[in-house]
Amino acid sequence: MSGSMASISPSTPWPQRSHSNINHHHSTLNLKSTTNFIVPSGRKNSKPFQSLIVNSAAESLNRTTGKATPTPPPLVVVGSANADIYVEIDRLPKEGETISAKTGQTLAGGKGANQAVCGGMLSYPTYFVGQVGKDAHGKLIMEALEGGGVLIDQLNTVAEVPTGHAVVMLQSDGQNSIIIVGGANMCGWPQNLANDDLEIVKNAGIVLLQREIPDSINIQVAKAARSAGVPVILDAGGMDSPIPDELLKHVDILSPNESELARLTGMQTESFKQISLAVAKCHKLGVKEVLVKLGARGSVLFTEGNEPIRQSIIEAEKVLDTTGAGDTFTAAYAVALVEGKSKVECLRFAAAAASLCVQVKGAIPNSELDKFSALKLNDKSFMEDGSSRRLELHEVHSGPNPISNSFTEEVPDINIQTAP
């Protein structure tokens, strides 16, 4: 793809962003000790953690420049890990009907694992906190996480329950329907998380949660993050039960898709006005930012008191599987946010990562997704013409688009508009 981009460059590290910049209503955490955290012997992996230093002089060697650069605070994903049993079908079966699948295979997945591998594939230090069973599916997941560059020292193995799994019915057009069996994702958690788990959370740059593990665990994690000034993104995917108020009030960004937003609020979400009203209800519950994923129609970020920002999709050359697209989008947004990019840039980077994700089968991102490829795809939407740049959003439709409103978000160096 042609073009160059000064503001985002794969050869130039993005600036580190302190907690006070990301989440300015919390205090900044400063650690004086540089001691490595050691994993208890009960963990599957016994290697020491990398030092987690926030706002310190900790440095690592940049392989591109050969110079020492500050070590960024990590992305910490606390959530689910599944063995996804894929069956490829022409259509969904009707009630009482039995149909034959074209193929079937088992791949690593789960919203938490998907998001963690996305962070690792985007070359950002990523930790995963979760549970698997002592079985073949658990081994599959551990291999997939490590293969994606994720640190799994906090991945616990439980003997009494099997690894969580899901049946993914993948249709020929790339759309999917999913049935989840919780397994170790929902059972076997301690009543209180271990101190070393919470220490990782408190020293994160940003924390990602989903709703495929118990709400009680998410609440403990969100509270620990809030106490340390660490921003929390809650992906609304997973359980269809109401989100506890105690969890919502400790979340900085709620990220549902249209159907999840409708279910959580009990309101319709078929038009921009309806989505806006549903988001307003979320604001009343204490969530300041709501990032709504709209599938083929892109995404919209609503920040209380500000105009919404809309991001169209970046069209993929081919669409093979949309299973992990939402997870990839959310994780890529988190990576861009913790690296200090503007909200506009975060949205476009996330759209680029999701575009790469749907071009391969499987929910776990693979070698097709890396920071250089995402930046390169992201690059074609930016124009280098000085400090006052205009980013035109090119609409990509797959049928009627109910979101026809236009709005403008003023950010440093960028004036972004959508066509009416």
UniProtKB/TrEMBL annotation:
Domain of life per record: Eukaryota
Catalytic activity: D-ribose + ATP = D-ribose 5-phosphate + ADP + H(+)
Domain called Carbohydrate kinase PfkB: residue spans: 75-366
Cofactor(s) needed by this chain: Mg(2+)
GO molecular function: ATP binding; metal ion binding; ribokinase activity
EC number in record: 2.7.1.15
Binding site for ATP: 257, 293-298, 326-327
Keyword Iron part of the UniProt annotation: no
Active site: 327
Coiled-coil regions listed in the entry: none
Regulation: Activated by a monovalent cation that binds near, but not in, the active site. The most likely occupant of the site in vivo is potassium. Ion binding induces a conformational change that may alter substrate affinity.
InterPro entries for the chain: Carboh/pur_kinase_PfkB_CS (IPR002173), PfkB_dom (IPR011611), Ribo/fructo_kinase (IPR002139), Ribokinase (IPR011877), Ribokinase-like (IPR029056)
Pathway: Carbohydrate metabolism; D-ribose degradation; D-ribose 5-phosphate from beta-D-ribopyranose: step 2/2
Subcellular location: Cytoplasm; Nucleus
GO BP terms: D-ribose catabolic process
Cofactor binding notes: Requires a divalent cation, most likely magnesium in vivo, as an electrophilic catalyst to aid phosphoryl group transfer. It is the chelate of the metal and the nucleotide that is the actual substrate.
Subunit structure: Homodimer.
Function: Catalyzes the phosphorylation of ribose at O-5 in a reaction requiring ATP and magnesium. The resulting D-ribose-5-phosphate can then be used either for sythesis of nucleotides, histidine, and tryptophan, or as a component of the pentose phosphate pathway.
Family membership: Belongs to the carbohydrate kinase PfkB family. Ribokinase subfamily.
Entry-linked PANTHER family: RIBOKINASE, SUGAR KINASE
Protein name per its UniProtKB record: Ribokinase
Organism in which the protein naturally occurs: Cynara cardunculus var. scolymus
